[in-house]
UniProtKB/TrEMBL annotation:
Any one GO BP annotation for this protein: cell surface receptor signaling pathway
Superkingdom to which the source organism belongs: Eukaryota
Cellular component GO terms held in the UniProt record: plasma membrane
Protein residues bound to ATP: 433
Originating species: Artemisia annua
Alphabetized GO MF terms: ATP binding; calcium ion binding; polysaccharide binding; protein serine/threonine kinase activity
Kinase recorded as keyword: yes
Entry's transmembrane regions: 332-354
Protein name (database record): EGF-like domain-containing protein
Main localization (coarse): membrane
Domain spans labelled Protein kinase: 404-680
Mode of membrane association: Single-pass type I membrane protein
Catalytic activity: L-seryl-[protein] + ATP = O-phospho-L-seryl-[protein] + ADP + H(+); L-threonyl-[protein] + ATP = O-phospho-L-threonyl-[protein] + ADP + H(+)
Length: 702
């Protein structure tokens, strides 16, 4: 009876929660939008809607009162984004080509941890100066004099330089000029110098910026707070203290920044909303979301938290990560002896039935949400294909992995976790559990499942099917037993396993897989790397993990998309532009070739790559005739001179910065095929790399 009453109360709480009105981020009766920008209190757009005039937002100009930046967004964590004008000076100097903007930020300083002062141009400098003092410098940065060997990329001093911003800067002017008198404005150099503030990671230098920086803007992060005292002092003035119910106060003064008095408000744990308005922090019902509670069985929401309950006769805190729910032998015996065992059993059966029904409804909901109906329709239409994907039930995969026990984890990454499992027919499988999937891309995901399941290639890990009855879809692949190429190259137990012949074979098989995928499915993998190339017991390469792959329509040559992938392997052209092409996979494959040749990780911390990254370090060594110095010992000992040269040249072609200069995967495959056959025929040739003198260099005729 007690447990039925608990269920009834939970049901009532659920309906009350559904009927609760979601409160606005602004004060009652006040607009909370300027166009697409949300304006939360203490900010406001009308009199009576903001805390004080300092927080007034002019909607027509998208400007906070008495500031110089254009507002982009405001978040309740004490940050807002805006854009500032850029400083510019051109030579020979003309009045209209000279601009040193003066900046006022009221009480909203530049975030010192989130922004950089940036200068663009050779022999250029940018300074932040006090508004009314020519000699008072706040900070500055300068670039090198020479314009030789400019490369697109990070601002490291050549053509572009960056410097951090000090704490609590609220008024200044941005000034830019050339360092010397003999360069800027002359032939072979940039005509202008530029200075601007930008959020970290939001600007990547391009050589063409010298000619098209005018009128560009970049996002800048500003900090905001309320009051002018600490939390402790503010609480004493209850009339002006602005943190509402169920919130906590956070001081803006820190160990590193003692010059920015004030405080911020934040909803307490278990609450969500705007802490600056009355009743703005509302209780979160953790029982409605399985990811927010740890209950094994019953869950009861409380203010700011929740409580877990066990069946009658059980003991424990009812939490998965706690003591759980366990039966006490004495209690059961006493219960049976008192004649209530039957009642308890009936209650248990009733609860189990309700629980199973809830699980079934949840799985049915996830199945529909994850596109199960679409996939069923597509599978029916293509049922004549023997390779069509199979839809697995959640129950089967839970049993296959012992409820996804951590002992069955065989891999983890930024996009999810991979479990080893055994199906009822004793088939070994790998089950990928993604962290999340965009609800807007479900149909695209389903189409890719169909396409990938129909790929039948000896060097591609076979997708057997998927499960759509869970919060995020599960993908089921064939299980490959002999680890990854990355492990064989870099882990101590495997390092000696890869001869040059095996490395050449792995490269050739991987190229065949990518060429097949590009030409038959129009899929771009987007994450080719040695840890995504699996090996069978006989060292057959299998390309895996199509979790972030994208389908490019037949009539298109590229796709505009958010940048995804692994640093070091990502195509620099795709990283800058967001334009994905098949040549993006070619660059990543080129990095795999470099890794196979050198035995080095794409990024290492031993300083050997001079902060250039493995690609530039390898190409630079090649161009200086120093290839022998960067080759892996196994390549030196086993590889034949001409074959090593050709493979290195192919790797260099694949990692060209411009995609149009790279070969396509079909051309790469053909060249590797020829190289592989040639190596087998010439394996007895005595002119091996290992016979080179220690000071002998491999020199290429380009």
């Amino acid at each position: 009876m007690k447990i039925l009453l608990t269920h009834f109360l939970n049901l009532m709480i659920f309906f009350v929660t559904l009927s609760r009105t979601i409160q606005s981020q602004s004060l009652p009766g006040c607009p909370d939008k300027c166009g697409n920008v949300t304006i939360p209190y203490p900010f406001g757009t009308e009199k009576g809607c903001y805390l004080s005039e300092l927080y007034y937002v002019n909607c027509s100009k998208l400007q906070v009162h008495n500031t110089s930046f254009k507002l982009l967004d405001i978040s309740l964590d004490g940050h807002m984004h805006g854009s500032l004008p850029m400083a510019q000076r051109c030579y020979p100097q003309k009045a209209k080509e000279y601009r040193d903007p003066k900046i006022w930020l009221s009480r909203f300083p530049i975030s010192s941890s989130e922004n950089f002062l940036t200068t663009v141009g050779c022999d250029a400098r940018a300074n932040m100066k006090a508004l009314y003092s020519e000699d008072h410098y706040i900070t500055g940065c300068l670039s090198m004099t020479g314009c030789n060997m400019l490369r697109d990329g990070l601002c490291l001093g050549m053509g572009c330089s960056q410097a951090p911003v000090p704490y609590n800067v609220t008024s200044f002017r941005i000034h830019t000029e050339r360092n010397t008198n003999g360069t800027v404005g002359k032939w072979g150099f940039n005509k202008c110098t530029y200075g601007f503030l930008v959020k970290k990671g939001q600007y990547t230098f391009q050589v063409t910026d010298f000619d098209n920086m005018q009128n560009r803007t970049f996002p800048v992060v500003f900090e905001w707070s309320v009051g002018n005292t600490s939390c402790e002092e503010a609480r004493k003035d209850s009339e002006n203290y602005v943190c509402g119910e169920n919130s906590v106060c956070i001081d803006t003064l820190t160990e590193f920044n003692q010059s920015y008095p004030g405080y911020r408000c934040q909803c307490a744990d278990g609450y969500n909303g705007n802490p600056y308005i009355k009743n703005g922090c509302q209780d979160v019902n953790e029982c409605e979301r399985p990811d927010l509670n740890e209950c094994v069985y019953g869950c009861t929401n409380t203010k700011g938290s929740y409580e877990c309950s066990c069946f009658w006769g059980q003991q424990g805190d009812g939490k998965k990560t706690g003591t759980g729910c366990k039966y006490s032998g004495g209690t059961i015996f006493a219960g049976v002896s008192m004649g209530i065992g039957t009642s308890g059993m009936l209650t248990l059966i009733l609860y189990w039935g309700l629980r199973q029904r809830q699980i079934m409804k949840s799985r049915e909901m996830f199945f529909k949400k994850n596109g199960g109906l679409i996939l069923q329709k597509l599978l029916f239409e293509s049922k004549q294909s023997s390779r069509t994907a199979k839809i697995f039930s959640a129950r089967v995969l839970e049993k296959a992995t012992n409820n996804f026990h951590k002992s069955n984890i065989v891999g983890q990454g930024g996009y999810g976790t991979v479990y080893k499992g055994t199906l009822p027919d004793e088939t070994m499988v790998a089950i990928k559990k993604s962290k999340s999937i965009d609800a807007n891309q479900i149909e695209q995901f389903i189409n890719e499942v169909i396409i990938l399941s129909e790929i039948s290639h000896p060097n591609v890990v076979k997708l057997l099917g998927c499960c759509l009855e869970t919060q995020t879809p599960l993908l089921v692949y064939e299980f490959i037993t002999n680890k990854t190429v990355f492990q064989h190259l870099h882990e101590q137990n495997f390092i000696s396993s890869l001869t040059f012949e095996k490395r050449l074979s792995i490269a050739t098989q991987t190229a065949k897989a990518l060429s097949f995928i590009h030409t038959t499915t129009q899929i771009v993998h987007r994450d080719i790397k040695t840890s995504n190339i699996l090996l069978t017991d006989d060292y057959t390469a299998k390309v895996s993990d199509f979790g972030i792959s994208r389908f490019i329509p037949v009539d298109e040559t590229h796709l505009q998309t958010l940048v995804h992938g692994t640093l070091g392997y990502i195509d620099p052209e795709y990283f800058r532009s967001g334009i994905l092409t098949e040549k993006s996979d070619v660059y990543s494959f080129g990095m795999v070739l470099v890794e196979l040749l050198t035995g080095r990780k794409v990024y290492s911390h031993d300083g050997t790559e001079s902060d250039l990254g493995l690609a530039m370090f390898f190409v630079s060594s090649l161009e200086r005739g120093c290839l022998i110095q960067v080759l892996d010992d196994k390549v030196k000992n086993d590889g034949l001179d001409e074959h090593v040269k050709k493979l290195a040249k192919l790797a260099k072609d694949c990692v060209e910065l411009e995609g149009k200069k790279r070969p396509n995967m079909k051309e790469v495959k053909e060249e590797l095929d020829e190289l592989c056959h040639s190596y087998v025929k010439s394996s007895i040739v005595s002119d091996k790399v290992k016979n080179f003198d220690s000071d002998q260099l491999i020199v290429f005729d380009w």
